[in-house]
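Task card 7
Instruction: Convert sequence to structure tokens.
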Amino acid sequence: MRIPLSIIVTSLLLTSSVTANERAVTDATAMFEKAVSSPTVPGISVALGDRSGIIWARGFGWADLENQVLMDTDTKMRIGSVAKPFTSAALMRLYEQGKIDLDKDVRNYVPAWPEKHAAITLRQLTSHTAGIRHYEAGEFLSNLSYQDVNASLDIFKDSPLLFKPGSEYRYSTYAWTLVSAAIEGAAGGRHFKQIMEEEVFAPIGMKDSTLDEQYTIIPNRQRPYSVRDDRLLNSPQTDHSYKWAGGGFISSTSDVVRFAMAHLDGHFLKPLTVTEMFTPATTADGKALDYGIGWHIGFDIYMDRFSEDPDVIRIMEEHPNAVMHSGGSTGGTTMMILCLDHQRAVAVVKNVDGDTSTSHILLALKTLDMFQSD
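Output:
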């Protein structure tokens, strides 16, 4: 019996695909095992996905060193500033519902914002061009609990703006605290946690994502670690109620990947809305930035850092149409990349801050590259 050529070719292609995937898993596993062999890296979680779902996800090392709890795929990690894209998704859901105007004075939604300040828009806040300050001494390690989003505005609302809104770019996590207050103001009485659950987590199916509430019992939450003077230590106790929207979520890496990929499905957000989010903002004098609405646009921000590593430069150049965000928190370091050309997303999170033995950005880029041929 003669086997049709089309069946032979299909069989060979499937075999080749499986082989490529197995090779990628082997190489990626070896890379992450080497990374967690460092005495200053307790654990790492990684996930990679495409339109079909999660391609590969795994935990390496320890989620909790003292109690010998292994890092797993459902470990809830501190994702730091990846909270900003999460929050921007909720904002844009309200925008699509006609409840938010990105170009109105934020005081339309937050009456508590002082009249003494120049008018600031949500578009400026979400692109870091509003002039809101970032952390001052000791604030990053705050362990104060704030009753609600509006109460946390007291930290910075009386600080002078750093520049005329729209004229410059200056990164600010506090800008996102004001964004969250505006989201609450536009959402008809719902509090921020409820909005995130109803507008983002539930629609996407992100069951491992929530606020990193200090006193709530949350199953599978990582233990946070910090490196100080080359020693691995338990991180100091911190309360993130002052910065939920800009750096206060926990999530599994698979949830982060699901979140990123949802921007491509045409259902969670409209394609035109996503395009608006992924379009670089401009300053008042026309200077284009590498930041859109809650997302870094392109790899320019990392080119200098890896300029002496031609392989990394190659990977970035092969993914020119990518959006991303990194995150740094007490006891957590994160990288999320969404490649629009290849329609794949990757997330890498270490449960430690201050570690310099391995780069979370490098791990994410190389993971994306290893699975490129799959």
